[in-house]
Amino acid sequence: MEPTLLDGDKVWVNKLAYDVKIPFTEISLANVSDPHRGDIVIIDSAAANKRLVKRIVGLPGDVVFMQNNALTINGNPAHYEVVSEQPDAAIIIEELPESTHQARVSRSYLSRNSRSYGPVEVPPNQYFVLGDNRDNSADSRIYSFIPREELIGRSSSVVFSLDRDNRYLPRTDRFLADLQ
Description:
Elements: E1 9-14, E2 19-21, E3 28-31, E4 40-45, E5 50-58, E6 63-67, E7 70-73, E8 76-77, E9 79-85, E10 89-96, E11 99-106, E12 117-121, E13 126-130, H1 140-143, E14 146-147, E15 151-163, E16 169-170
């Protein structure tokens, strides 16, 4: 999820964002609200056999199409702006309907096989998710659509962050930082 999340970030997860569940289980008692485009969600993925952190870009009924990392939802292309250039990647702002966030795209020719996808229609009660590190993300392009019952919760902030490259010293500027 780089640049939104960094290695060493610990995020706050609101497990009541979408459902009220029986404590210590994944059994839903009631739906509280529906996920929105742009939400950063924690997924208990049966296909991946692990928990994932991804961003919802396609809602049930949406037609999602991706051509060379340029996203189109329901025939409306996303708007892009380059924020910073790095030797191996570019950080961009991706503006989707109802959502704007940063993403990272690689300059490497080795990672171009997952840059195009679809068009596909998102089935009822399922979601299309992407990682913000587009060329280094196992997301719906690999695991397919995410069923609503696999959504654990929504994350909107970093609780704390430890920098692995700097002897695990805290990144105090990321403590309680909002995620976009």
